[in-house]
Amino acid sequence: MNLVYAGPDGHVYDHPDYIALGRNGELVTELLEEELIPLPEGATLVSLPDTRPIGLHAKTGAMEVVPGEVNAVGALLPQGFTRLLLPGYAKADKTKVLPLFGYTAVVWKDGGFYVAAEACDDPERWNPRNCDPDELEVKVQGLLTQYPENRLYQHLSNCALGYECLTASNTFLNRWEGAVPVSFSCNAGCFGCISEQPDDSGFPAPQTRMNFKPNVDEVVQVMLEHLKTPESIISFGQGCEGEPSTQAKIIIEAIREVRSRTDMGYININTNAGLTDHIRAIVDAGLNLMRVSTISALDDHYNAYYKPRGYTLKHVEKSLRYAADRGVVTSINYLIFPGVTDREEEMEAMIEFVRRTDLKLIQLRNLNIDPESYLQLIPPAQGERYGMKQMLEIFREELPGVVLGSYTHIPGDLAEMQKKHLQHG
Question: Mind telling me which CDD domains this protein's record contains (predicted)?
């Protein structure tokens, strides 16, 4: 399997003199055949700026930094695929940080690109090619014309057309999971926040956070337009906003108004779940689905990344337990990273956390971060590292009633996924 690199011209090449390597955290490691799958449709190859690829010299077997003016290459995976290894690289300039993406090891073999990844969900629903730009443009203009005073539609139009956000696009295309952002503030200071970064962070946020507070009527209009089919999902808590539960009053009034007019579809919240009293009230208003973002079930790791303001991981757990006890289908948005998530202590803590909270789904999401910055931020490993592939196998064995996936599913779909898992298990 040949090492892949980017030349000075920006083109991607394979190097016949070097065998590709990957990284599990800071550890450079060989790639195994069973860890590789063909480059998925919708994946993107990117050059890692200010880096040099590391490979095994094909003749000597020595691990070397590839000479010349070349950069390491990684793959950005579409939804539905879980990264198993980082690209094998070293930084040429250690003061520089990589843009906030989830870089995956990529190799050239058998005449094509392969990546160190595993398919964990059906990628078809979130495949970018299913979003026709011409149709989207028409739909956006249609809703902007229909609701000229609705600031949410104006905001989401930029998310859909400018950032090409698929959840925002779904809001206009009236399908699957759509977005209804509500909050410009947050009760956490996430190290890897994609919508707001301090000026001295070193890496700019890739998108802009909303800067206004919508009124209830604006929220209700978006919700009612989207909740028109039994399988539709409308979601509070998007990448372009802060923590939605900080605007609990708006959410509660909007849910009650919408549910007084239709019982169609599902209402979801993507949240850090730290404001337990707010979450309880939102659940009681008629919430159907809840996805809670977490990076760890260990306090020191969680606190280092999220920098929670006025809440702890115990509050998060109480919110999840309350929602599950009242029939809300709960999941976690689990931000995973090779060499960290597969640590023995991380796995043990997360398995127990999932059991205590009665989760139905773990959404495995590749953490978008500069690896060196993240590894310096969090506590060092205490036990063995199992590797991501074995970690997934252990989770499936230890949590047979929990679906491992990549995105939010309605209860019927979850039941089918669980049935298939049990049949194959």
Answer: Radical_SAM
403 vs 423: CA distance, rounded Å:
13
End-to-end CA distance of the chain: give it in Å, rounded.
31
Residue-level pLDDT at 212: 86
List phi, psi (to 5°) of 2.
Answer: -80, 145
3-state secondary structure 359-398: CCEEEEEECCCCHHHHHHHCCCCCCCECCHHHHHHHHHHH
Residue in this structure with the two tokens 């003061």, named with its chain if needed: 95
Q: What's the CA angle centered on 344, arms 341 and 346, to 5 degrees?
A: 45
Report d(CA 285, CA 57) in Å as an integer: 62
CA distances from 7 to 46, 69, 119 (A): 12, 7, 30
Tell me, yes or no, if the pTM score tops 0.90.
yes
Instruction: Let me know: does 182 contact 212? Beta carbons within 8 Å.
Output: no
- Whole-angstrom Cα distance, residue 219 to residue 57? 58
Is there a contact between 72 and 5 (Cβ–Cβ < 8 Å)?
yes
207 burial level (CB within 10 Å; 0-12, 13-18, 19+): middle
| 73-77, 142-146, 416-420: the lowest-pLDDT one | 416-420
Give the number of other CB atoms < 10 A from CB of residue 33.
8
DSSP 187: S
Contacts of residues 155-159 at CB distance under 8 Å and 24 or more positions apart, as own/partner, are 155/181, 155/210, 155/212, 155/240, 156/181, 156/222, 159/207, 159/238, 159/240
Strands (E), 89-164: 89-91, 103-104, 106-109, 112-119
